[in-house]
Amino acid sequence: MANLARPRLLNHRDFPAYAYLPGSKQPHPVRDPGGHSFQQEIAPSAQISVSPTDALQWGIDLFNHGYYWEAHEAWEPMWLAAKGRVQDRTLFKALIMLAATGVKIREGKWLAATRHAGRAARSLRQLSPGADTRLLDLIGITPDALAGLAEAAARFPVELPKHVVGRPQPVFSFMLWPTHLAEPSPLVDC
After folding, report:
1. d(Cα 72, Cα 60) in Å, to the nearest integer?
2. What does the pLDDT look like over 94-109, one tens digit per residue?
3. Number of C-alpha atoms within 13 angstroms, CB side, residue 23?
4. CA 67 – CA 182 distance, rounded (Å)
5. Alpha-carbon torsion, ordered 10, 11, 13, 16, to 10 deg
6. Shortest CA distance to 137 belongs to which of 26, 53, 17, 31?
7. pTM of the predicted model, to two decimals?
8. How does pLDDT run across 109-120, given as a tens digit for each residue?
9. Residue 51 pLDDT exceeds 90
10. Confidence tier at 146 by pLDDT (50, 70, 90)
11. How far apart are CA 70 and CA 63, in angstroms?
12. Are 16 and 37 spatial neighbours (Cβ–Cβ below 8 Å)?
């Protein structure tokens, strides 16, 4: 897939030094002292209870730019904090599984990518039509449409360059983008 110019939601935040890929020679981001987020919380839990918007948008930025492991880590505290809010919890679970799909695609593990994409799609299809759209508006796509895109991404392998370990690598042809913001510019090859 071509290197794509993609807009950002939180320009004031710096991306991690590398996009972690399990099994690579990169240090584990949070467990290794050389990791890009060692002794840091990617999405501090205290902020989530106050305003989930920044934490969700940070995960969206990470996801859209190919930092799938990091997006998973950004969304996981939101999933954990959503106890009792079934719709929110289901959406975060689906986003986490979608990020895991991106990791597996980058690893070239298509069976695992298909499994994660299927789990993401099932979770997305559990979301009630017409229910609270507050968080759905923040990702800018209907759950059913995102479910289809997740499944398609795992069904149609993309050829990825092998020399990009550590560099972020978007593998999805779509982006998450809040509906209240102007549409992002069309994706263009760089």
Report:
1. 10
2. 999 999 999 999 888 8
3. 6
4. 23
5. 100
6. 53
7. 0.82
8. 889 999 999 999
9. no
10. very high
11. 8
12. yes
Question: Whole-angstrom Cα distance, residue 85 to residue 160?
Answer: 38
| Residue 52 CB neighbour total at 10 angstroms | 22
Note the pLDDT tens digit of each residue in 16-29: 988 878 877 775 55
pLDDT at 140: 86
80: which residues sit within 8 A by CB, 6+ positions away?
Answer: 45
Backbone angles phi, psi at 9, to 5 degrees: -95, -40
Q: Inform me whether the pLDDT recorded for 143 exceeds 70.
A: yes
Which token pair is 143?
């759950």
One-letter amino acid for residue 148 of the chain: G
Distance CA 68, CA 50 (A): 25
Residue the block writes with tokens 């995960």: 59
Sign of the alpha-carbon torsion through 63, 120, 165, 37: positive
Give a three-class secondary structure readout of 37-80: CCCCCCCCHHHHHHCHHHHHHHHHHHHHCCCHHHHHHHHHHHHH
CA-CA distance, 157 to 51, in Å (whole number)?
Answer: 37
CA distances 108 to 19, 75, 117, Å, are: 15, 23, 14
- Pairwise pLDDT comparison (88 vs 25), residue with the higher score: 88
With bands split at pLDDT 50, 70 and 90, how would you rate the model's confidence at 39?
A: low
CB 107 within 8 A of CB 24: no
